[in-house]
Amino acid sequence: MAVVVVVINMRLLLLFIFAVVIGMVSQQIHAAVLQDDRVDVLYHSYNGGGMDIDGPAILLRKKARENIAVQAYYYVDSISSASVDVMSTASPYEEERKEVQLAFEYLHEKTIIDVNFRRSDEDDYLGNSISLNISQDTFGDLTNISMGLAYGANEISRNGDDFFAEESKQYTLNFALSQILTRNLTMTINLAAIADEGYLNNPYRTVRYVDNSQPSGVGYQSEVYPNTRNSFATKISASYFLSYRAALFANYRYFSDSWGIDASDVELAYRHPIGDTFELEFNARYYQQTQANFYSDLFPYRDAQNYLARDKELSTFNDTTVGFSVTYLVPQQYSFGDLRSEASFQWDHLIFDYENFRDPTAEGGIGNEPLYGFSANVIRVLYSLYF
Amino acid sequence: MFTCHKASTKQLLISVFATIFLLSLSGCSSLGIEPWVKPYERQNLADPIMSTSRHPVADKHVSHVYEARESARGAEGTGGGGCGCN
Question: Which of A1, A319, A382 faces B57 most closely, judged by CB atoms?
């Protein structure tokens, strides 16, 4: 098995190097440009299902030269959790997650190569990853193709247990093809293959099983997940310019993995300007998935099968999102140093309906509780300054 | 048997990626097709209202919220990972 993985990873690396070389050689002489310098400051808030998460984020992007850009990103999640998982077998908790990203972009004629380093740090989880991506305009700039590789290594610990130390790794291969189809329509197809290996459980979560020896009639044991997971995702997106100057966006994604989960989501968005200073956007999204083949809300007895899960994110469920945003294009005389800037308020409302995950905190008897569901509100307030 | 099946699936994915990527690099011009939307015909597509990456810092947050609550991931163009998902 190890030999097979090594051989495949070597093939991936060789393929990527080959693609980079071909990309550099086959391009025509016609300069592209890097994106504008900018700084974005964001406040985000998530409230729903017993969880409150909020915090700031900042993104700074600056060109060092005409063909080199540096981007830094800092993000904080302040989490206060009393979710249904936590309330059924544990106590509410608070924690903080900090994420830092540093990216470098290099432009060579029509090719952009970027390298991104990422670090996510929590009390009980440390994730590091690196990604390499190459994109190129071709076919009279009607087509853009990109391909990327990412590698992540995670260290998992468990608060209150100094002897618990696990690791996981993730390999990702991305491909994207964007095509201008008409004067008003572009389409993009994204493909991603992800391979996870190592400890993929949540170290705190348990499954429940029928146990008549307990007064409550239910017993608990730790989840057991497979040590590998292979996933594949395909997304098709379209952007359409409406003749009265508005934009319509649509995308569809299909996902499947080796745990037996099939998922799909579809999203529509409509963006409409009001005068020269405001833009409104309305969006709606629907998502559905089937359960992992080792998931059960209530197992018949202890150690009922090799792999055990009761994570509601591995159950069969659907969720719906509706949202809107308003963006204010700040007139230059009111902006910093006469620079172009904009402020945006975005709100999303999410509704989750679980089809085989029951609320263990509700009445009804073991295995007969009502099915769980919840709604959440997500708010983003951000300011972008271009310089 | 299971290992062989997983290996062949990965090899198939690699082959699909490689084929699509290399065909894309060759461009449609190798098939005798010329670019049909000229640069001066792209002002609508270049309008900022058509930008799909207008607020990248907000896009990262949207992806993070969904990745923490759903099993599907990938094919989005933004990073993810460790997240207070309980």
Answer: A382
